[in-house]
Amino acid sequence: MKTTIHKANTRGHANHGWLNSYHTFSFAGYYDPQRIHFGALRVLNDDTVAGGMGFSKHPHDNMEIISIPLFGDLEHQDTTGRHAIIRQGDVQIMSAGSGIAHSEKNANHNKEVKFLQIWVFPEKRNIEPRYEQKTFLPTERINQWQEVVAPNNSNALWINQQAWFSLSNLQKDQTLPYQFHHTGNGVYLFLISGSIQIEETRLEARDGIGIEATSSFNIIANEDAEILVMEVPMELPA
């Protein structure tokens, strides 16, 4: 098993006042040639947006964009006419495809919104832009995996890539195995909260680890932990 560890305090950081953002991979003003992407996983941003503030309308193309609110409510609008509120417990995916413009802002003026924004390189380019969001019950991820993004699961959000995202709320002293869907894929695990152990590696809140060259691994919770795993192809199309 090959691992790549990114401790929380090694991430890129930009504080714009209204936006406080941590970048696991190179993004905007943060550039590290050793941290451009992990296979098809291009961006993992850990964002906090002040009340009433947000990102004005801006374009994307040929990227799968996933948003996971951790606290508060995120308001989304795009050029397909979609206007939606994404709440804690929801997951959103937008296939930018041939081109789309969208805006995101804090839906509330009296509290922050905290969310993960994740970009994945697509399997097929220039598809018709699409949007989907779904509410997932936290009770259905206690000590087990709750698949929230997948190319082949009708209970999850569809993604234009051979990628699988799963969440778990793992209780202290519990062990949870992860089995890869495809040989040759890698898994990037982001620890939202708590503390876990993977073999000899201890991870704390907001740490990340890339895992390759194996078909499975086990996670042990040192304390109650909230975990996101993103399984993605490691080889990108030429």
Description:
By secondary structure, this protein is mainly beta. It has one domain: Jelly Rolls. 0% of the residues lie in helices and 57% in strands. It is built from no helices and 20 strands. The chain has strands at 2-6, 12-15, 19-23, 41-49, 54-60, 64-71, 73-78, 83-87, 90-95, 100-106, 113-120, 130-135, 146-150, 157-158, 164-170, 175-179, 185-198, 201-204, 208-212, 216-233. Strands 1, 13, 14, 15, 16, 17, 18, 19 and 20 form a nine-stranded mixed β-sheet that branches. A seven-stranded antiparallel β-sheet has the order 2-3-4-11-6-9-12, with no helix packed on it. Strand 2 (12-15) and strand 3 (19-23) form a beta hairpin.
Topology:
Blueprint: E1 2-6, E2 12-15, E3 19-23, E4 41-49, E5 54-60, E6 64-71, E7 73-78, E8 83-87, E9 90-95, E10 100-106, E11 113-120, E12 130-135, E13 146-150, E14 157-158, E15 164-170, E16 175-179, E17 185-198, E18 201-204, E19 208-212, E20 216-233
Parallel strand pairs: 13-14
Antiparallel strand pairs: 1-19, 2-3, 3-4, 4-11, 5-10, 6-9, 6-11, 7-8, 7-10, 9-12, 13-15, 15-20, 16-20, 17-18, 17-19, 17-20
